[in-house]
């Protein structure tokens, strides 16, 4: 039995991972991660796992990324609630530079988003009390961290709900200017 179905997106390397459930009267089991399968996508060894809770529907977090040499791959999964997960291609000279892709992640649909190096990531909660699990290929590195403003009109992210909450830090990230040429990996 295939434990994962991998669905490529229009942005090269960005992939929706659909986990298969094995169900019976007791409940279900689903494989959450398999290095052998994820290596085919380019996954490196996991260095860090983070768990978040966002309490209010409509809250936005993001759009975060790390510069090389601490650029990271992320696998993002929703354990409770529903989110719109968003990735933006920041790879210099990519044919999809600054293009966004979004997918709804829920506990029920068993989808995760595989986000390669060179992408910014953020999400909006569509329900209250959303819990997410992040697998990272690099440790958090404050000197390499950066972010885009999630409300930047140049990104044109279509948040489905009115933004009810955003951190002062995320809202203070600068808007893109014409000098931004992307990340060189």
Characterize the structure shown.
The structure is a single chain. The chain is mainly beta and 185 residues long. The protein has one domain (4-19, 36-172): Jelly Rolls, CATH 2.60.120. The protein has two helices and 14 strands. The chain has helices at 35-39, 168-172; strands at residues 4-8, 15-19, 21-24, 27-30, 48-54, 59-66, 74-80, 82-89, 100-106, 111-115, 119-125, 130-136, 145-147, 165-166. Strands 1-2-10-7-12-5 form a six-stranded antiparallel sheet, with no helix packed on it. Strands 6, 8, 9, 11, 13 and 14 form a six-stranded mixed sheet that branches. The protein is globular, with a radius of gyration of 16 Å. The mean pLDDT is 95.
What's the tally of helices? Answer: 2
What's the CATH topology label? Jelly Rolls
- Give the DSSP E fraction (strand runs of 2 or more residues): 35-45%
Structural class: mainly beta
CATH 2nd-level architecture: Sandwich
CATH domain class name? Mainly Beta
How do the helices and strands follow one another from N- to C-terminus? Answer: EEEEHEEEEEEEEEEH
| Low-pLDDT segments, ≥5 res | none
Query: Major sheet, described briefly?
Result: 6 strands, antiparallel
Please compute the radius of gyration using only Cα atoms: 16 Å
The CATH superfamily title = Jelly Rolls
Q: Would you report the number of β strands?
A: 14
Count of domain modules: 1
Sequence-ordered SSE layout with sheet pairings:
Elements: E1 4-8, E2 15-19, E3 21-24, E4 27-30, H1 35-39, E5 48-54, E6 59-66, E7 74-80, E8 82-89, E9 100-106, E10 111-115, E11 119-125, E12 130-136, E13 145-147, E14 165-166, H2 168-172
Parallel strand pairs: 6-14
Antiparallel strand pairs: 1-2, 2-10, 3-4, 5-12, 6-11, 6-13, 7-10, 7-12, 8-9, 8-11
């Amino acid at each position: 039995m295939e434990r994962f179905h991998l669905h490529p997106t229009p942005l090269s390397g960005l992939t929706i991972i659909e986990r298969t459930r094995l169900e019976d009267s007791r409940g279900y089991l689903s494989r959450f991660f398999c290095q052998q399968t994820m290596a085919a996508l380019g996954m490196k060894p996991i260095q860090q796992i983070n768990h978040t809770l966002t309490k209010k529907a409509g809250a936005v977090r993001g759009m975060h990324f790390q510069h090389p040499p601490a650029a990271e791959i992320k696998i993002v999964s929703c354990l409770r609630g529903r989110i719109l997960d968003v990735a933006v291609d920041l790879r210099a000279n990519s044919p999809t530079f600054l293009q966004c892709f979004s997918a709804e992640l829920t506990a029920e649909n068993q989808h995760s988003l595989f986000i390669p190096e060179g992408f910014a990531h953020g999400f909006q909660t569509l329900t209250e009390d959303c819990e997410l699990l992040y697998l990272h290929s690099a440790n958090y590195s404050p000197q390499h961290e950066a972010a885009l403003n999630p409300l930047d009109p140049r990104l044109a992210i279509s948040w489905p709900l009115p933004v009810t909450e955003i951190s002062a830090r995320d809202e203070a990230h600068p808007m893109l200017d014409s000098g931004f040429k992307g990340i060189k990996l």
